[in-house]
Amino acid sequence: MAYWLMKSEPDETSFDDVLAAPGRTVSWFGVRNYQARNFMRDAMSVGDGVLFYHSSCAVPGVAGIAEVASGPYPDATQFDPSSPYHDPKATSAHPRWISVDVRAVEGGRYLTLAEMRSVPALGDMVLLQKGSRLSVSPVTAGQWNAIVALLREGQR
DNA sequence: GCCAACGTTGGC
DNA sequence: GCCAACGTTGGC
């Protein structure tokens, strides 16, 4: 079992939006970076743990725990000329970008990026490296356990 | 809104 | 295949 951190802009899709979605599941579309795509296509498995991260917002941080709920399939928005994620070089015969389904598992308190930076056990996280801007990044088991413990602090 | 860092594009 | 120019990301 592997662990991942996936970034979403909460104005577009927040963790609460996923909790409210049918089956608590959404399609993760719009990834347009090859490294992030390759993680999703080649390394993710159904059941992998996902830290749901809110980016490009007033207070970035981890909003909850989710899981990978499907294998990879073509991202429909790449074929849609009216979508901001449209890719004119992608065809249905040769799709370039993929999606996976993500299911919300558990909320928690909001763990801010600033707090994550203060936790020594998280110092090696890909997310926290200088210049890192991958929208999908791997998380080690140790990092995962530390973050899950922090998310559960003060929760009933 | 700024800007550092990174990724992509395209001329050569 | 190099690399300058440009575009994007994302925290602050």
From TrEMBL:
Q: What is this protein called?
A: EVE domain-containing protein
Upper lineage is: Bacteria, Pseudomonadati, Pseudomonadota, Betaproteobacteria, Burkholderiales
Q: SUPFAM superfamilies recorded for this chain?
A: PUA domain-like
Q: Which residues form the EVE domain?
A: 2-149
Fetch the InterPro entries from UniProt.
Answer: 5hmC_binding, EVE_domain, PUA-like_sf, THYN1-like_EVE
